[in-house]
Amino acid sequence: MAPTDLVEFCEAEWSRLVGALSLYTGDPDLAQELAQEAVARACRHWTRVREMDAPVAWLHRVARNLAHSHFRRARAKARVERQRGADRLRVDEEADVVAIRAAVAALPTRERDVLVLRFYVDRSVRETARILGCPEGTVKTLTHRAVGRLRTAGFVDEEILDG
After folding, report:
1. How far apart are CA 162 and CA 158, in angstroms?
2. What's the predicted TM-score (pTM) here?
């Protein structure tokens, strides 16, 4: 690939990457920051990344790992703040958006990964399995569980599933 392919690669994936991270993290600003870092890493390692079988999968995996690291740090900080009696952060978004994001964020990590990749980034079962490094059957099981949890919480309409 020519060096201009890096620009094309980044432009082609940017909006999906930010969108997926926004849904995954529940914070559009954080999603932008994490996407920028993931793209910066792709740029730094482009000679290696462009030779990979699935550079897009690599980019999304890096972004997801950055999000995981962010959440680990945030949990550690929250523990310290709780110990100090810090107040909880308030979110200035519409209640339904906050509720949906919270429901997705409350899913177990692997289920959340699958849900975001399958339904937001619009990846196939095969592509999702490749990105997550697991069998396709695992992706199907995790998808079923995640949708079931969201249905139980009242966020999944049966018509959506049938359509």
Report:
1. 6
2. 0.54
